[in-house]
Predict the structure.
Amino acid sequence: MDEIQQSEDEKFMRLALRQAEMAFDAKEVPIGCVIVKEGKVIGKGYNQVETLKDATAHAEILAIGAASSAVENWRLSDCTLYVTLEPCPMCAGAILNSRISRVVYGSPDSRFGGCGTTVDVISNNALKRDVVITSGVLAEECLGLLQLFFQEMRARKGDTGAKPL
């Protein structure tokens, strides 16, 4: 990856981290997402599963909905999705269906990752869609926010035992 692309990826991942911080403040698992087309953010979202009482209210799903509304089209070709944690299989399916061409994520998800860490919904998909995956952008910052959230959650519940993500 060239330095210009890396710089752009870090810039937009920082915006996704801001969304994750909003989730953190709302006591939601801190995952944030932005969708970019031609250098402009057209959609953003953060986890709102608890707030909306909706199992599908993941950051990526909400950002895809916002981006689709912004461009008045469900097809998000030539868009890049930036998300702080590797998308789960549900979100990876939505990425394929919305025709997003690139996914950049921060931290891999060893439990539910749908972009190759646990399962690979994206590569060799039945829809024959090409999606470029870039992983590890600001990974330590993304993971650090998640770890802090779960430490605080365990402290609130009185559980001080450290558990891996």
